[in-house]
UniProtKB/TrEMBL annotation:
A cellular-component GO term for this protein: cytoplasm
Region annotation Disordered: where it falls in the sequence: 1-23
Provenance organism: Marilutibacter maris
EC primary class: transferase
Subcellular location: Cytoplasm
Protein family (similarity comment): Belongs to the EPSP synthase family.
Binding site for 3-phosphoshikimate: K26, S27, R31, S172, Q174, D324, K351
Role: Catalyzes the transfer of the enolpyruvyl moiety of phosphoenolpyruvate (PEP) to the 5-hydroxyl of shikimate-3-phosphate (S3P) to produce enolpyruvyl shikimate-3-phosphate and inorganic phosphate.
Name used for this protein in its record: 3-phosphoshikimate 1-carboxyvinyltransferase
Catalytic activity: 3-phosphoshikimate + phosphoenolpyruvate = 5-O-(1-carboxyvinyl)-3-phosphoshikimate + phosphate
Source organism superkingdom: Bacteria
Binding residue positions for phosphoenolpyruvate: K26, G99, R127, Q174, R355, R396
Length: 441
């Protein structure tokens, strides 16, 4: 697939038009494989993301004896082995680029009878794991890490876990999920309280697999000693993948684009609120999802029309709800009229790259005035020029600059784009099909 190339050349395309559906949600796909593997019975997953991150998670469970079939692209049949049915892996477990994979797996593996070793690629090997090691250790797990709490993680088996009442210091769905997954194996009750509510896919999916769980914004509570029962999982289209096209269609004059069946979990759609404050024209249609049922994921078609955008102070309360969308928002801000200020987003510094630094460097290379702050940035909207930018192996940085290039006065070369395959296989083809000008070299 052309996304595997190392470099893209991009330039202003046509107004964006047509309708498209982006691939399945990464967060939901990881969790569907995990819970399917730990359930009793056979789970069918439809809309599975065929990305490197989620395929790495599937391979990890195969290494531990779980049979996973691929009857067709974007479909998996997971033959669950039950909560205690995983087999000791003969090799290290490679999570690739996926922070979600490694952090959630650490919770699952902390509860096993066997030892295991989680490893990742160069980017994942730089990401902080103390945030999961600390609460899991407090529950009775034994985990050795590299220096400074970095991967690899050696997780010792055979420990009895105790439930915990844990207040997460950072708003992180990955930390919350790791603790809840360990809680499945723990004696007593596990409660997680967050400083700000984060995505609740683990909670919804645990409920869908029949595990008794109480949850609401910013809080979840479950007890150990139950069983997961296989079910069917319908993965919605990934809002974070749709985000690039939402921003592109908002920015490129003359655009009108329909994004089909996008996952609309309210803890993911903060970008819509931010863009609407900036003046964007985004309509939600045919909203689906079994309203009122806690285990269902809401879905909607989004119709995006070009509109002139103005700079804003991004409300800090929106930050966790749009944490993966800041690279795209920075591009919107660079093309808006006036100044945009982002604060309270220090977490961006520990994602697949330091997203404040990589976006600032790239936007500056295209002539945008941007000032980094420790927890955000101040961006002066205006004209984007051509030039060469580097994505630092970060999929969302690469795709954000492909969007920026649509507005650029000159051609843009985007280096180091192979990692787009972690979350968005087929991005180049889809982008071109709606009128973006993007070529894989
Ligand atoms: C994710 C949670 C977020 C997000 C990541 C996926 C998840 O990370 O950035 O892309 O699937 O739980 P944090 O929870 O660490 O903020």
């Amino acid at each position: 697939m052309s996304d595997g190339g190392q470099r893209w050349s991009a330039g202003a395309g046509r107004p964006l038009g047509g309708a498209l559906k982006v691939p399945g949600d990464k967060s939901v796909s990881h969790r569907a494989v995990m819970l399917g593997a730990l359930a009793e019975g056979t789970t069918r997953v439809r809309g599975f993301l065929e990305g490197e991150d989620t395929r790495a998670t599937a391979r990890v469970f195969e290494t531990m004896g779980v049979r996973i079939e691929t009857p067709s692209a974007s479909e998996r049949i997971v033959h669950g082995v039950g909560l205690h049915g995983l087999r000791a892996p003969a090799t290290e477990l490679d999570c690739g680029n996926a922070g979600t994979g490694m952090r959630l797996l650490s919770g699952v593996l902390a509860g096993q009878a066997f030892d295991s070793m989680l490893v990742g690629d160069a980017s994942l090997s730089r990401r902080p794991m103390r945030r999961v090691i600390d609460p899991l250790t407090a529950m009775g797990a034994r985990i050795d890490s590299g220096e400074g709490g970095l991967p690899p993680l050696r997780i010792h088996g055979g420990n009895t876990l105790q439930g915990i009442d844990y207040k997460t210091p950072v708003a992180s769905a990955q930390v919350k999920s790791a603790v809840l997954l360990a809680g499945l194996y723990a004696r007593g009750e596990t409660v997680v309280t967050e400083p700000h509510p984060t995505r609740d896919y683990s909670e919804r999916m645990l409920a869908a697999f029949g595990w008794p769980i109480e949850f609401g914004p910013g809080r979840a509570r479950l007890g150990g000693g139950h069983r997961l029962r296989a079910t069917e999982v319908e993965v919605p289209a990934d809002f974070s993948s749709a985000a690039f096209f939402i921003v592109a269609a908002s920015l490129v004059p003359g655009s009108e684009l329909r994004l089909r069946a996008v996952g609309m979990n309210p803890r993911r759609t903060g970008l819509l609120a931010a863009l609407r404050l900036m003046g964007a024209d985004i309509r939600e249609e045919s909203v689906a999802g079994r309203a009122g049922e806690a285990d269902a994921e809401p879905v909607a078609d989004l119709v995006v029309r070009h509109a002139p955008l103005r700079g804003i102070e991004v409300p800090e309360a929106l930050v966790p709800d749009m944490i993966d969308e800041f690279p795209a928002l920075f591009v919107a801000a660079a093309c808006a009229q006036g100044r945009t200020v982002v604060r309270g987003a220090a977490e961006l510094r520990v994602k697949e790259s330091d997203r404040i630094a990589t976006m600032a460097a790239g936007l500056r290379a295209l002539g945008v005035s941007i000032q980094e702050t420790p927890d955000g940035a101040i961006i002066e909207g205006g004209r984007i020029g051509g030039g060469r930018v580097h994505s630092h192996g970060d999929h969302r940085i690469a795709m954000s600059f492909a969007v920026a290039a649509q507005l650029a006065h000159g051609s843009v070369t985007i280096e180091d784009v192979a990692n787009v395959a972690t979350s968005f296989p087929g991005f180049v083809e889809l982008a071109n099909s709606i009128g973006m000008g993007l070529q894989a070299d």
